[in-house]
């Protein structure tokens, strides 16, 4: 029997080529799109599931009392030892400190320098918590000696080639010299922690003082199986009360976060060294978009199938008089859909090789082609097959099989008009989605352009950033800075603790009469900061060029927020003493206009540049403002000067403007993904509309013929046919606009600086949706209206 | 075999009750050949559909082989009609996507017959109607007369007791019509198949043993 159904299904498929191809194309495109999304979601959900202790590993997070809506992923370096000592349920705890609090390290191996982004200083306990697989060296306790380090296989190849790295030495940032004691397999892509090199924490400069104040140490712990995590959490929280004697110094509380939640539920967690951060929201959004496209393709199928059902009805009627039961007829229609869905799944699978490549390049993911042949993908395709068959096949199957044979065999079968209403409703649903997506594309594009063109309050273009955190003393750079300052294309050279777009130190701005202090960001700098960054000076002058050896004053260049809070005008502020946690003698020497030192997503807060002898923070970057006319030549000269003057440090540089652009990477990915999805969704919707209009034109051949005989013009007929659909599209616009505006307001609220949604833009976007629909429909309308009326009347 | 007693069927349109069939009393025995005649709209096709259990009635009684059809559930009715009744239509109603062979085979599929048995029966049927050479053609490739032959073969293949034919020659020329009528006569005489046909043509009606005239939903005496 089933072969009989399939035979009929196949012949049906062939006999209505246009409908079949439209359906096949729509469904297979939808499936091809969904496969990479499925793999992406699968990968995001699989994060950290490879570790043997995955269910018992926790990260210690910190919640600052001052801003209780924030969570930090790092804690003071005293927390891990205290946990091991005080809490019996904790088997192990280990700190992970990224080198230089996140600035890349300069590694020296023999005579060569390498830049390393992923050097972590950690405790030996780390290897008890996470199971690393060692391929060389003594794996059990590789960080036994204080100066021991382990590296992963890629790092071993990079630093040492094919030679065995065991026992070789690596000098880090011209400081400690480490000995390689082990090589471990590269951690998988779906691991949250990603060290390429791990060195014993005891060799780090940061291990010299153990304190409860500076929270910069990502800390993981292994809880004994069977422990009540609530109780462990309470014990962890109790640590601050025990170890921080002065209650006014207890500025935070601690809490444990399970490893399984770190990847997808930490988007809001700040101050973490983990860079592979996912977001459950993104996963959900992407899943939703995928479902939407499948749904739109299924709607196409339902629409075309029910439209065709008037023709199919007769056949079902005959079969019923020949003795077919309802069940048999239902099965027949499902077989019909199943065949098409199967062909679509196969086609979609073949197309997915392309879509996976596209998805990877758009989203920056690294999904492997081999994943396409994995069991999960095959299961997913099976599920999609069954789902589409049920979803798309049910309506025609149940509609037709439920009617009586006599009804079905009548010349024109109507299911009480229900199918027509439903068809219209489905078209409206489909097009509303398209309208929402079109509006979303336009607004996202506008916002990203706005972000790109916004006056940041400084000029990031042509600013070269050179990482100098590996240079032991700033004096060592004097030769270099003198040399490049002489170059005709170099305008200014400034020393900075951290460039815009990177975090600065957090301190507090105190006002004598005010109860609450304001969070203040401070950045160690020199006089050249104003011209190099193109800051706009409102009053006073830049930081002093030279400081006398005995000068104990701290010179402050404040932004306008600071003086606003103090209640001064910029002019009044000059020369005033200000309490910024930098000692007694801090004076304002200049005031600059507010500038966006972080991404435009965050508001501008009080910010100062300061200069002082014995500053608590060192310089980490050189900002070189250059004339970009002969960029390649200038860069060559700067690089060779660096290699000559600072031979022991790798030349690590980037451009400020491109660094700032990376702050919006996630949004850009979102923008491109939405763009792609929208185009596909609109494309699939149009396929459906095209099919429906073709069908309508066919249905109305007789009416068109009669009207033409009565004197209707081609134009009036194509207008009649097109208007039928345009009414539906207009309804979709009315439904789609409020949804789109609501969703885009939500998205825009992520940005501190954002565009206003202009009704003109929304209207234009909606209009373009209308235009797309019109073009789709008019092809068939015009074709139908041109037909010879004699032929069309004869068809009845 | 078929007994209709005071059977009526009506539709209500705007408060008016319009009878499609009124007080029909009719007895058809096994092996009968009955022609139903009457002007358009007199209720011929409706009567045939009621007999064929494709349509319901509102009043009266319908006994099929002594069983009260009105009291049967949909499924029982369906199986009754599947096992005993074959239909022949004016517009042939062949399935366009199936070949001659497959069209004839279809009723057997719904009887859940085994493939080998089906093959034998269909082959026999093709032989009987001299259509072996045409078995792989699709309906659109046949003339009207040939299509109707396929229609009759399909109606017969499940070996029904009754053939219900709704103007079987309506779309055919007179020579083709005669051919069909000859087949009906032979079936009736040789195989004892009961035949009930609706027709407009006096000449074709005369092939039957008796003629029932319908006028305005009633049987005329």
TrEMBL record, chain B:
GO CC terms of this entry: membrane protein complex
InterPro entries: AAA+_ATPase, ABC_transporter-like_ATP-bd, ABC_transporter-like_CS, MacB-like_ATP-bd, P-loop_NTPase
Keyword Lipoprotein: yes
Name of the featured protein: ABC-type lipoprotein export system, ATPase component
Biological source species: Arachidicoccus rhizosphaerae
Gene3D superfamilies named in the record: P-loop containing nucleotide triphosphate hydrolases
Short name of any one Pfam family annotated for the protein: ABC_tran
Keyword NAD set for record: no
Keyword list, A-Z: ATP-binding, Lipoprotein, Nucleotide-binding, Translocase, Transport
């Amino acid at each position: 029997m089933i072969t009989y159904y399939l035979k009929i299904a196949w012949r049906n498929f062939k006999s209505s080529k246009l409908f079949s191809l439209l359906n096949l194309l729509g469904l297979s495109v939808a499936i091809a799109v969904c496969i990479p999304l499925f793999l992406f979601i699968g990968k995001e959900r699989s994060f950290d599931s490879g570790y043997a202790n995955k269910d018992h590993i926790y990260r210690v997070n910190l919640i600052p009392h001052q801003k209780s809506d924030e969570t930090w992923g790092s804690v003071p370096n005293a927390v891990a030892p205290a946990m091991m000592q005080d809490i019996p349920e904790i088997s192990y705890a280990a700190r992970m400190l990224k080198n230089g609090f996140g600035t890349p390290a300069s590694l020296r191996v023999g005579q060569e320098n390498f830049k390393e982004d992923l050097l972590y200083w950690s405790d030996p306990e780390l290897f008890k918590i996470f199971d690393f697989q060692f391929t060389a060296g003594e794996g059990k306790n590789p960080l036994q000696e204080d100066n021991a380090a382990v590296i992963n296989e890629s790092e071993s190849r990079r630093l040492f080639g094919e030679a065995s790295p065991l026992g070789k030495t690596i000098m880090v940032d011209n400081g400690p010299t480490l000995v390689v004691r082990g090589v471990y397999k590269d951690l998988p892509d779906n691991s949250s922690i990603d060290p390429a090199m791990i060195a014993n924490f005891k060799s780090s400069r940061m291990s010299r003082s153990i304190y409860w104040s500076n929270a910069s140490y990502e800390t993981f712990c292994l809880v004994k199986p069977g422990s009540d995590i609530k109780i462990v959490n309470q014990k962890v929280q109790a640590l601050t009360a025990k170890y921080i004697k002065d209650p006014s110094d207890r500025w935070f509380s601690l809490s444990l976060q399970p490893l399984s939640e770190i990847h997808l539920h930490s988007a809001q967690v700040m101050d973490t060294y983990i860079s592979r951060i996912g977001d459950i929201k993104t996963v959900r959004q992407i899943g939703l978009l995928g479902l939407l496209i499948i749904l739109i393709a299924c709607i196409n199928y339902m629409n075309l199938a029910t439209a065709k059902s008037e023709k199919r009805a007769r056949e079902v009627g005959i079969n019923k008089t020949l003795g077919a039961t309802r069940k048999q007829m239902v099965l027949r229609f499902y077989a019909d859909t199943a065949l098409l869905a199967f062909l679509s799944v196969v086609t979609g699978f073949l197309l997915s090789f392309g879509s996976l490549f596209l998805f990877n390049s758009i989203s920056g993911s690294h999904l492997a082609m081999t994943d396409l042949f994995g069991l999960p993908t095959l299961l997913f395709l099976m599920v999609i097959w069954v789902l589409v068959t049920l979803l798309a096949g049910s309506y025609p199957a149940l509609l037709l099989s439920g009617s009586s044979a006599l009804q079905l065999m009548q010349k024109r079968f109507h299911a009480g008009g229900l199918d027509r209403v439903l068809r219209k409703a489905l078209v409206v649903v489909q097009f509303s989605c398209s309208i929402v997506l079109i509006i979303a594309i336009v607004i996202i594009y506008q916002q990203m352009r706005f972000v790109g063109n916004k006056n940041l309050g400084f000029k990031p273009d042509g600013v070269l950033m050179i990482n100098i955190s590996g240079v032991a003393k700033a004096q060592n750079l004097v030769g270099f800075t003198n040399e490049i300052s002489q170059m005709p294309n170099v305008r200014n050279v400034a020393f900075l603790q951290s460039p815009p777009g990177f975090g600065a130190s957090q301190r507090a701005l105190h006002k004598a009469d005010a109860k609450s202090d304001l969070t203040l960001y401070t950045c160690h700098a020199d006089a050249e900061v104003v011209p190099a960054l193109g800051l706009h000076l409102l009053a006073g002058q830049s930081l002093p060029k030279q400081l006398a050896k005995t000068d104990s004053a701290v010179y402050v260049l404040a932004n306008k927020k600071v003086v606003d809070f103090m209640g001064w005008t910029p002019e009044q502020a000059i020369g005033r003493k200000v309490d910024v946690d930098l000692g007694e003698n801090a004076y304002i020497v200049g005031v600059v206009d507010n500038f966006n030192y972080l991404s435009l997503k965050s508001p501008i807060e009080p910010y100062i540049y300061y200069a002082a002898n014995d500053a608590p923070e060192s310089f980490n970057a050189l900002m070189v403002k250059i004339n970009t006319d002969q960029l390649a030549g200038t860069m060559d000269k700067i690089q060779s000067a660096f290699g000559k003057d600072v031979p022991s440090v790798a030349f690590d540089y980037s451009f400020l403007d491109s660094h700032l652009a990376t702050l919006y990477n996630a949004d850009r990915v979102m923008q491109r993904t939405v763009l792609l999805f929208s185009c596909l969704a609109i494309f699939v919707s149009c396929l459906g509309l095209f099919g429906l209009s073709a069908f309508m034109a066919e249905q109305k051949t007789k009416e068109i013929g009669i009207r033409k005989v009565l004197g209707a013009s081609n134009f009036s007929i194509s207008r009649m046919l097109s208007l039928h659909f345009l009414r539906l599209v207009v309804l979709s616009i009315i439904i789609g606009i409020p949804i789109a505006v609501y969703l885009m307001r939500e998205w825009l609220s992520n940005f501190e600086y954002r565009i206003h949604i202009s009704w003109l833009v929304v209207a234009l976007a909606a209009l373009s949706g209308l235009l797309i629909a019109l073009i789709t429909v008019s092809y068939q309308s015009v074709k139908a209206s041109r037909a010879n009326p004699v032929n069309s009347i004869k068809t009845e | 075999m078929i007994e209709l007693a005071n059977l009526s069927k009506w539709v209500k349109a705007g408060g008016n009750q319009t009878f499609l069939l009124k007080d029909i009393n009719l007895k058809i025995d096994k092996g009968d050949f009955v022609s139903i005649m009457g002007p358009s709209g007199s209720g011929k096709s409706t009567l045939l559909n009621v007999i064929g259990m494709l349509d319901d009635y509102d009043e009266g009684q319908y006994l099929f082989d002594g069983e009260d059809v009105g009291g049967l559930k949909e499924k029982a009715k369906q199986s009754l009609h599947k096992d005993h009744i074959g239909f022949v239509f004016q517009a042939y109603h062949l399935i366009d996507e199936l070949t001659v062979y497959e069209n004839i085979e279809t009723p057997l599929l719904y009887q859940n017959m085994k493939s080998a048995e089906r093959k034998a029966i269909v082959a026999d049927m093709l032989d009987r109607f001299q259509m072996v050479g045409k078995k792989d053609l699709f309906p659109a490739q046949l003339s009207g007369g040939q299509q109707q032959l396929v229609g009759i073969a399909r109606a017969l293949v499940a070996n029904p007791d009754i053939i219900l034919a709704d103007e079987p020659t309506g779309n055919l020329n007179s020579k083709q019509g005669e051919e069909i009528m000859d087949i009906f006569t032979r079936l009736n005489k040789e195989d004892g198949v009961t035949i009930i046909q609706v027709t407009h043509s006096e000449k074709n009606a005369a092939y039957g043993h008796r003629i029932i005239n319908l006028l305005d939903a009633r049987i005329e005496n």
